[in-house]
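quick one, two chains, predict together pls
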Amino acid sequence: MLATWATSLQSLSLPHSRLSPVPSSPSSQLDSLNLTTHRRSFPGVSTRLMTSSDEKHRIERIASSIRVIPNFPKPGIMFQDITTLLLDPNAFGDTVELFVERYRDQRISVVAGVEARGFIFGPPIALAIGAKFVPLRKPKKLPGEVISEEYSLEYGTDKIEMHVGAVQPNDRAIVIDDLIATGGTLCAAVKLLERVGAVVVECACVIELPELNGREKLGGIPLFVLINRA
Amino acid sequence: MLPLRVMAAVDEDARIKRIASTIRVIPNFPKPGIMFQDITTLLLDPTAFRDTVDMFVERYRDKRISVVAGVEARGFIFGPPIALAIGAKFVPLRKPKKLPGEVISEEYTLEYGTDTMEMHVGAVQSNDRALVIDDLIATGGTLCAAINLIERVGAEVVECGCVIELTDLKGREKLGNRPLFVLVKGT
């Protein structure tokens, strides 16, 4: 399936979200310019001021680097494989940069990443915006005292855990995962953070499978994605 | 004014001290007698986390590294920022049945029984120069399996990089003549 980058551009806008309005959007000012100035704000990611056509091209490149594996983990499922994105350093860098640009001025103090693919995208974002990285893990992986949140699977339930003390009341948090499907995992992640009094500013994923209505499941929590895949 | 070389050593020492001080030890996890080195508290200190990544990046940026392989799951936290900074591919090495495409597998010994590590076919090419990154080296079994996977496709493992080495467990010897670089040594 081709990525619908037009839809993903819509995802990039900032409607009814908890993000504060960013003054003088660079993309509107620079649309007519062909800026290639690079600023390195942290190792590896140049914070180039992006035009909107830049953004389109970057998202197209990111989308084209994602491989689809049919019938994994079971028949009928078209698995969105981001490992091929990670083999393209420019696409991977652009992916991180798109999130960093969105969140850098939003006073985010926590980036929570869902095991295991959220561990790949979350830390580079956290490092770039100066936030804590908090891993949310399957049961019995975190060594210290944890709080747990159970969530439903198609058959049965699962749990994710967070270290006690990792997140403080009034931390401003984003939750990162590679993909949102039904939204069950992200919902559980949001609950863990809210239970300790943090504000979940937004959930962010590389890919959304919109037919599975995960977005609705998040209730009032905004969701930002780069790519929609049917 | 101190000579540049001395100043650099002092700065590195300060960074390592900070990194080491952020690592929490949890006794008797996952079982009695084990003092678990918990890096999640390092990740809660943005300066320490940044310094950790920087120290690896400084070491590897001019070494023409084309692949950073990270061992699931804590290698996924340290590997990608290093890969991004040095312009290398990031290759996840995973437990069985997690990678969706065609894989090659390497079995390795645990204290009781064995486990298997997998890598996607085609992720690493024979002319790649690779690093293997994990949070910690204990007996070296996991890192050895990772090295084997990469060498089986004909690539070169330039070095293994870990935040922590548990020196008593002699993992370094198990890696043979392959270089190992660590930031913090613990018992």
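Chain B has a mean pLDDT of 95.
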